[in-house]
Task: structure prediction
Amino acid sequence: MFHSESVPVKVRLSVLVAGLVTVALAATASTASASWKAQYGVQDDVWLELGTTKMSSLQERLATLDDLGVDVVRYTLRWDHIARLQPDAKADPDDPAYDWSSADALLAGLQAHGVDVVLTLWGTPAWANGRHKPNWAPKSPLALALFATAAAKRYPWVHKWEIWNEPNQRGGLDPNSPRLYVQRLLNPAVAALHALDPRNVVAGGATSPRATRTALSAVSFMRGMRRAGAHFDVYSHHPYPRWFGRGRPETPLQTLRCSRWLTMASLQCLLGNVSRNFGPKHVWLTEYAYKTNPPDLFRGVAPTLQARYVSEAARRVYQAPRVDLLINFLIRDEPVIGRWSSGFFTAREVVKPSFFSFMLPLAEIARRGAQTTLWGQVRPRSGPQPYVLQRRRRGGWQPVGAVGVTGKRGFFIRRVFAGPGSRFRIWSLLDDTFSPALTIR
Result:
């Protein structure tokens, strides 16, 4: 466990705190929210598979996910890595050409720890696409469907699937044609996964948020998917901010006008486009993050601001209709400056405030005069959780009311009398850990 005001250390709770927990769990808390649908998770394939110097064992990394309270992990099954050689029986996971070793231990560990999984299928083997790069589609529309069948047989407990990654930009699919995506990748794989197990829920789209020299806008790509007759269960999207830093970062709680950019701040536009093209389907946000400065001096925000945005994005998803899932991209920063520094740890494994805001998100819902409504969650474990809401007063942190108890999924809503500049935080009793301080605006 990482303590938010000291070096990382596992803290044994005092007898006094244990007594408070017992009392709190026995009480009925009027501030606890009802059970809710939103799942919150992470993606960091490299960190999860390989670890680091300080977290060399898979069990240590899985324990960190437990500490964070991760509901779901998005993980990419690299078709081109698992099937470097062409299998004879492509729908059979036991064909000797398949090598599942990179995924087996991790996925078994996630299952053992009760962590849900979204498996993203990506990367065409050279033998299936005419010796091109992995972002080229296979020549046969049956090719990915057969691999999806093999993967679903290999991991029958996984029921969340995503077909490809950012096919609207050429780095994901080249050429980035929505018709090609639907006919060669999406529809055949969806049909195969549904035929194997009707419990499988399959996401299509996985679109990046903006148009560039090498990317179609998600708005255009969705329209092309509809015209091509796309079939899927939920739409997935990556609502990265339009402005990361440079003095005016885009916040998760902004409401921007609809344009070709579909970010968290224009979430209502994303939902509207999905409805217009595919009906009232639900949405998964399978990548989202903010880089930090340091180390990214040009496109990063301060670590404290990243922490606030992690909480605010969670709150926005909690309140959004039809949005069921939010994935934070990276647990540990990539070591190369200028790449993704959106982790909860630096590349040198120093914990950032965002670690604790993911674990204990706290956000301001509304303020009317001196009355402020706060939203929060205690994520580690399952079931109702005891917590103390604290307020900064006279140089110290004071409790606001008695010990509270969250709803079944750890959520709570509290109304407090506090104006701008007031500071609050969550104390999770069972973890003896604090959220970053929230300053009321």
In short: The radius of gyration is 22 Å. Residues 1-35 have pLDDT under 50 and may be disordered. The CA atoms of residues 59 and 109 lie 8 Å apart.
